[in-house]
Amino acid sequence: MNNNDRVYYSHEAEMYAMHDRTVLAILFLIFGLGIGATLALLFAPLSGKSTRQEIGKSMEVGLNNGRDAVEPMVKRVEKEFEDLKKNIEDHRK
Asked: Same domain, yes or no, for 93 and 69?
């Protein structure tokens, strides 16, 4: 009998087992990411100051690109909201 052939005596017991496996997988994922981040910083080709500057520049570029992508949508929603507001006011008259 292998692990996939387990017999659960209730749906609740099966759900607890699934929850435990999920929590364990998430913990291992977080642990692995932490180790990976630590190793990346230890073996980074740049100094800490240079690395922080590069990260800051990258984040700034990413934020600017995000703003550029979102701005047209925000303007469109604002225009549609104004049109809706005008239509409601016209129907009230």
From this structure: yes
